Amino acid sequence: MADLLSDDEISDRLPEQWTREGDEIIRVFEFDGYLDASGFLSAAAGLAEDAWHHPEMTIRWGEVEVRLTTHDAGGITENDIDLAERLNGIHD
Ligand SMILES: C[C@H](O)[C@H](O)[C@H]1CNC2=NC(N)=NC(=O)C2=N1
């Protein structure tokens, strides 16, 4: 199981456009409409399954909010950072 990251490690490794809220890292990905957001959601779910690391994702018109934490560790680990970077990669 991945170890919890320290506050400094989280700050240093937080990917672009992501913010930290307590035990989670969050990004709201923006899109031109609902179907674009839906396509991202599906692709993101595939990356999560590949990583075997599953975020909470909320789809709204024109955006997908992604919240990542490592439940098994009770906080933020490198698994969260790594998946956040991969999600940036399919959007930015
Ligand atoms: C049993 C299963 O391997 C675990 O629940 C995995 C699955 N996906 C997961 N996703 C997240 N976000 N955190 C976990 O600790 C986690 N653990």
From TrEMBL:
Keywords per UniProt: Lyase
Entry keyword Lyase: yes
Catalytic activity: (4aS,6R)-4a-hydroxy-L-erythro-5,6,7,8-tetrahydrobiopterin = (6R)-L-erythro-6,7-dihydrobiopterin + H2O
CDD domains named among the record's database cross-references: PCD_DCoH (cd00488)
Recorded GO MF terms: 4-alpha-hydroxytetrahydrobiopterin dehydratase activity
Gene3D superfamilies membership: Transcriptional coactivator/pterin dehydratase
Family to which this protein belongs: Belongs to the pterin-4-alpha-carbinolamine dehydratase family.
HAMAP family referenced in this protein's UniProt entry, alphabetically: Pterin_4_alpha
Protein name, entry field: Putative pterin-4-alpha-carbinolamine dehydratase
GN (gene name): phhB
